Amino acid sequence: MREKIAEALKTAVKSQDKRRVSTLRLILAALKDRDIANRGAGKDPVSGEDVLSILAKMVKQREESARLYEEGNRLELAEQEREEIEIIRDFLPQQLCEEDVQAACAQAVEEVGADGLRDMGRCMNVLKQKFNGQMDFGKASGIVKTILTP
């Protein structure tokens, strides 16, 4: 994944796409920061799954920023955030649609044999293992909670 991002950065520099260059540099900086933190904690460097979670977190941060910019009537900054979101999403797997997320949540509940909210953590673990980077786990959590609530 790192090589793919580095290659995209080279291409963006050659084509002089400033927005793409800055966003890709931010991604690589975030990965390097996580590597340094992991090294200090005695952990392994960032793996493929960690890269996906970092990218998903970056998208979520930018969505929140864009929303706040819109509320503050700073539409040009909101647009910049949305452009960055699209660049970051190029490196994430295809997101599941709402119906697929609901079906996956129902399947996870059935697979775990969950019968109450105390089993929610196990359901979420199953979803995170199968669909890492493919869904918003905050929304999925709400769906699982709805399924498990009598």
Short description:
This protein has 150 residues and is an all-alpha fold. The protein contains 7 helices and no strands.
Helix content: over 70%
Task: Write down the oligomeric state.
Answer: single chain
Strand content: under 5%
Low-confidence stretches: none
Can you tell me the number of structural domains? Answer: 2
Number of helices: 7
Overall geometry comes to globular
Major sheet summary line: none
CATH class of the largest domain: Mainly Alpha
CATH topology of the largest domain: Hypothetical Protein Yqey, Chain: A, domain1
Order of helices and strands: HHHHHHH
In the CATH classification, which architecture of the largest domain applies? Answer: Orthogonal Bundle
The chain-level mean pLDDT equals 89
Class from helix and strand fractions: mainly alpha
Radius of gyration, Cα only, in angstroms?
18 Å
| CATH-level-4 superfamily name of the largest domain | Uncharacterised protein YqeY/AIM41, N-terminal domain
**Structure summary, number of beta strands:** 0
Model description:
This protein has 150 residues and is mostly helical. It has two domains: 2-89, Uncharacterised protein YqeY/AIM41, N-terminal domain (Hypothetical Protein Yqey, Chain: A, domain1, Orthogonal Bundle); 98-148, Orthogonal Bundle (Arc Repressor Mutant, subunit A). Helix content is 76%, strand content 0%. The protein is built from seven helices and no strands. The protein has helices spanning 2-15, 18-40, 48-71, 75-89, 98-112, 120-130, 137-148. α1 runs antiparallel to α2 and α5 crosses α6. The radius of gyration is 18 Å and the shape is globular. The N and C termini lie far apart (42 Å). The mean pLDDT is 89.
